[in-house]
Amino acid sequence: MIIDCHGHYTTAPPALEAWRNRQVAALGNPAATPKASELKIGDDELRESIASNQLKKMKERGIDLTIFSPRASFMAHHIGDFETSSAWAAICNELCHRVAGLFPDEFIGAAMLPQSPGVDPATWIPELERCVKEYGFVGVNLNPDPSGGHWTSPPLTDRHWYPIYEKLVEYDIPAMVHVSTSCNACFHATGAHYLNADTTAFMQCLSGDLFRDFPTLRLVIPHGGGAVPYHWGRFRGLAEMLKKPLLRDHLLHNIFFDTCVYHQPGIDLLTKVIPVENVLFASEMIGAVRGIDPETGFAYDDTKRYIEAAALTPQQRKQIYEGNVRRVYPRLDAALRRRGH
Amino acid sequence: MIIDCHGHYTTAPPALEAWRNRQVAALGNPAATPKASELKIGDDELRESIASNQLKKMKERGIDLTIFSPRASFMAHHIGDFETSSAWAAICNELCHRVAGLFPDEFIGAAMLPQSPGVDPATWIPELERCVKEYGFVGVNLNPDPSGGHWTSPPLTDRHWYPIYEKLVEYDIPAMVHVSTSCNACFHATGAHYLNADTTAFMQCLSGDLFRDFPTLRLVIPHGGGAVPYHWGRFRGLAEMLKKPLLRDHLLHNIFFDTCVYHQPGIDLLTKVIPVENVLFASEMIGAVRGIDPETGFAYDDTKRYIEAAALTPQQRKQIYEGNVRRVYPRLDAALRRRGH
């Protein structure tokens, strides 16, 4: 079984964006705020938006199941306040839930949180609870920078974040550390902000002792861990200088990297440097990079091809494709067991 | 000949830091500002600070010459105003000039600029001119984020920066794009901010058309290019999506990566993915990572070992060690020719 742990609903029907635009336009004028019930998307539309896009490519590529969350760049937690994000997260999560209901064998949900700059993470818990208890979601995306490129929140190791970690540990749910779009002109969203956030989050964890307080908390760092595996020697050396244990002991019980690295040499490095039990299959398809690589003739984000060609044993490949994902996402594992997998 | 294009004066005598501390302490009280002449460091002290540190390691490792600039993390352009940075840059550059005078065969200078957030880059030109004309410096460090982790300046492709580019082109001097310390708690300086800045600068250039306006401008992106080579497929795909030419045509006449990547798999990836003519030897020794790698028994930053072990021909190694550096830093090449190299 091949599980993609990193998919977003990037192909939602245009009515979703139209609703969001109305919500944003009404920011200064609450009376004009659209109601959630004003968004009308039928099941046929949902089905079509998936069947001709993600599902089509999954079948072509041989991917069985995708952990599916709202479009990352649309989370835009910097817009409006908690109420804005709360209404928006509820809508986006519900759509992913409906997709998972329409395609129960191929999609399972992960939640977006109603984050907002400066807001207490405890306020995000009701939405998380709803997604886990009512929707059966198995993961969550945690934005380490709800300001959208201004980095005004404390590091992920700060007690500020502890309320959400407590709930994640209680539910035994991992968080993918995933920023949203950048409203800082210095940072291109998918070409800089995403990768920078991955590197930043890892280094925050390296500098701190978060997993001493939360030994069972699990964080998935997407996009192959940003710059981290490429600079693994630097991080090993920095850990030593900061008098931390070896990275394997300090971080690798709790931090995992996905395989959203869009060329063979990158995946070769990732799978060589990072212990195989810390690598989770993912493609973020349909996402940041949608073209065909002229050097290979295949889609950049067809990451399964790189895993197939990497110097791995069949057993290691199986770990990356399935075993590790089921271990890191135990609620996914439980759902699959209930279905006889 | 082996040339390290990325060395900083991280081992300056303590009097330098003491002077800086007095300067910073006097920020609210200009009358207390120390004069440059109050900093007294003798030639013997300078000689000792180099001979027992950088020079010792250069001899051990077989490095002939280092392009030597003021300590990057001490630039701290966010502190004070232009006058503050101006006095500080003048002092730091003069010290590097004196080091190069004491060890003319082993060190040649690169300048720190008196950057300050929001200040017109034209104001930095007199210091650059002094360093080039009086000191014979061959390069310059350009900080893309003088705010120190808040990223309040426009992207490097913005016309804001053009006055300094015009001067660099006139002098035929490359800029190493190098941030200083981070005063944003989210970003560890050497573990996140440095690498993020490298990735960010590359993506800014990718998104823009800077080299159409400055076809001979050359930027060196340090630390192996941040996350860029590891994600080369992503960047190739993003260039296509942004309707830019192939990266080789769009950026690689103007952008170069150094080899400050502190483990073998990273250097293997760098030298496999990036054309050899775009890779410049460097170690940033003595810098961010000072320990001995327990996995190899050698210093993390002894990057020559990785180049020696990489799958390169002797001719390619010579390009990385010398040829490329002399091509990208023509004033260095001219100085070496004058000395018969």
Automatic annotation (TrEMBL), chains A, B:
Gene3D superfamilies: Metal-dependent hydrolases (3.20.20.140). It comes from the Bacteria. GO terms for cellular component: cytoplasm. GO terms for molecular function: carboxy-lyase activity; hydrolase activity. GO terms for biological process: secondary metabolic process. Signal peptide: none annotated. The keyword Zinc-finger does not apply. Keywords: Lyase. InterPro entries: ACMSD, Amidohydro-rel, Metal_Hydrolase. Residues 3-330 form the Amidohydrolase-related domain. Its EC number is 4.2.1.-. This is 2-keto-4-carboxy-3-hexenedioate hydratase. It comes from Usitatibacter rugosus.
